[in-house]
Every structure is written in structure tokens, then in C-alpha cells.
Amino acid sequence: MSHEVDQLLKQLRFPPEGNGQRGVATATAPRGRAGHLQPMVGAARESRFGGWPWVGLALILGTALPFWPYAHACGLPLSGYLAAVGVLFVVAVRALMGTWSARQGFAHAVALGLVLFALALAAQEILPRVGYALRAATWTCLTP
């Protein structure tokens, strides 16, 4: 068994003795032709753009929703409006996660503001219908 361990230890690359890290193995990055690093693939490729595409989409949605062209006081139009606000919330949360993993501070702050804006738009429509606001509203357009 010790012979097999010795063979495996010989395969490790050790740094030169003079750098103060005696006996510590170093990991090497995967390299392609001529010793150049290989291009990023998969999840690492996403970090190049980070969350900016998601932030841009959320900004477009967040800018357009206050100018919703249809009445959304009750019924099915209200459901459509709240669905659009839900899409804004989901896209903003996705932007928040992408900017966090890519360490993009400004984009992360913008995404956080968009999440809060989506919550405010939802609260503006939901709170009057659950009796929490001074103005009362109904979910359906049926009058008693």
C-alpha cells in the first residue's frame, strides 16, 4: 500500500524548495496549446456578463409598468397586471442573484431597487383589496 501512495505522491507537482512552502502541492489550471489558459465554459462564462442582461430587462419592465395602458381596477385585467408585476419581481430577483455572484456592486444595488419597486407595485394593488389601506377596492368587478 505504501508503494502505491509513493507512486501517487511522485505524480504531484511540488513548488521549488526556496519559496517557503515546503512540501505543499500546487494545483495547476487546465491549459491548452502553447500553455495558454483554456477559455471559460459553463457557469464561469456567465460571470463575464454577470447580471447586467437581467438588470436591463428588469429596468425595461420596471419603467413600463407604471405606464400600464389598460385599466386594472378589478377582475381579469387586475390579474394580468399583477402577473406582469410578478414577472418583474422574478426577473429582478434573478438579476439580484446574477449580480451577487459576479460581484457587481452597482448592478446589484440597481437590482435590489427593482425588487423593492416590484414589491411596492404589488402592495399598491393588493393592500387596498385586503382591507389594509384607507381606500377600499375589490378583486372582482361584480357589484352586490
Task: Give, in order, the helices and strands.
Answer: HHHHH
- For the record, the count of structural domains works out to 2
Strand content: under 5%
Low-confidence runs: none
Q: What Rg, in angstroms, do the CA atoms define?
A: 27 Å
User: Number of helix segments?
Assistant: 5
Largest sheet: none
Query: Helicity level, as a percent range?
Result: 40-55%
Compute the average pLDDT.
Answer: 82
The span between the termini is: 86 Å
How many individual β-strands? Answer: 0
Description:
The chain has 144 residues and is mostly helical. It has two domains: 2-35, no CATH class; 43-129, no CATH class. The protein is built from five helices and no strands. It has helices spanning 2-11, 43-49, 52-64, 75-101, 105-126. The longest helix is centred in the middle third of the chain and has 27 residues, at 75-101. The protein is elongated. It starts with a helix and ends in an 18-residue tail after the last helix. The mean pLDDT is 82.
What's the short story on this structure?
This protein has 144 residues and is mainly α. It has helices at residues 2-11, 43-49, 52-64, 75-101, 105-126.
